[in-house]
Amino acid sequence: MLLVGVLGLATVPARAACDPAGGAEFICGVTNAEDIVRVPDTQWVLVSGMSDTGQGHLYAIDRKAKMPVSVYPAESAKERQDKKTYASCPGPLPRGTFGAHGIDLPPKSAGKYSLLAVNHGGRESIEVFDVDTTGKAPALTWVGCVVLPAGASGNSVVGLPGGGFVMTNFKDPSDKDAFGKMTAGKITGNVLEWTPKGGWKPLPNSEMSGANGIVASSDGKTLYVAGWPGKNVTRWERSGDSWKKGESVTTGILTDNLRWAADGSLIAAGQDANMPGVFQCQPPCYVTSAAVQIDPKTMKMTKRLVTYPGNASFSGGTTILDVGNEYWIGTYRGDRMARVPMK
């Protein structure tokens, strides 16, 4: 099946039939759709196409048409480095070296946002874009980057008021035994904050195994961090100029990405499996995608939202976002996203 492009933007070919399977319908033509964010007050969602080889993408998907277009790289994308804020950035990535992972969309002004993207292609960095949603489709302008400290590999990122952000440091990219350590529950990384004036600094007592998803409250004073192998979510509170570690809740799933639901609750998504099972599961074995709801005030898990058994079409969900009356599920593998009805 070949998806037809809309609005004159780049088309994205799907590699296999896009027929429904297992009670889900699919949005095909997105490669390794690891993370998903909604663009407020628009019909658009943005998706990161994960890649360690430098062939990653940022996609925009119209919630009604459900057809993806690549907005980076794309002919419509521009470059204009903010050398004041990102003075240490060595410049735009060479063509073909972008490798997206976690993304966030902090607001800047009416109809305009910053897009923060964890990048593994060409350098370990946070790539920063301006997003203009006032046109017929989101338009991206690359404005800078923040190169990660030595020994750090980002997973997820969340913007904070004032232009800073917090990133989960998943593992040391040079550690060949990192996933073995995660399986054993050993520390592989931590949580890092970056500000334009102060640069990088770790959150105190944030060392953990497989630090993964992260979101912040609207005022930027509370963080929620997912521990992937630990199957948990931990709350952090701003205390002066630093952060204080708070309560944790167990999710029962390998907790990957976190997203705010439309009702203000937290959606914690991941794989309904154990660490060895994820790495050992090969077709005809498929990893189940799952999500739970968390009350951010009480830090209690309230219910299971999604259980989607893996199949030959889709498995290994990483992010689940409520979109209308559906849950959209992203994954680090394959050429599609799944859509399952809310129950």
Which spans of ≥5 residues are poorly predicted at pLDDT below 50?
1-15
Number of domains: 1
Helix percent band: under 10%
* Overall shape: globular
Could you spell the SSE succession in H and E letters? EEEEEEEEEEEEEHEEEEEEEEHEEEEE
Question: In whole angstroms, how far apart are the ends?
Answer: 30 Å
Write up this protein.
- The chain has one domain (25-336): Neuraminidase.
- The chain is globular.
- It is mainly beta.
- The chain is built from 2 helices and 26 strands.
Give the tags.
343 residues; mainly beta; Neuraminidase; 6-stranded mixed sheet; 4-stranded antiparallel sheet; 3% helix; globular; disordered N terminus
List the helices and strands and how they pair.
Elements: E1 25-28, E2 33-38, E3 44-49, E4 57-62, E5 68-72, E6 78-79, E7 100-104, E8 107-109, E9 112-119, E10 125-132, E11 139-147, E12 153-159, E13 165-171, H1 178-183, E14 190-195, E15 199-202, E16 211-216, E17 222-227, E18 232-239, E19 242-250, E20 254-260, E21 266-271, H2 275-280, E22 289-295, E23 300-308, E24 317-323, E25 326-331, E26 336-341
Parallel strand pairs: 6-11
Antiparallel strand pairs: 1-26, 2-3, 3-4, 4-5, 7-9, 8-9, 9-10, 10-11, 12-13, 13-14, 14-15, 16-17, 17-18, 18-19, 20-21, 21-22, 22-23, 24-25, 25-26
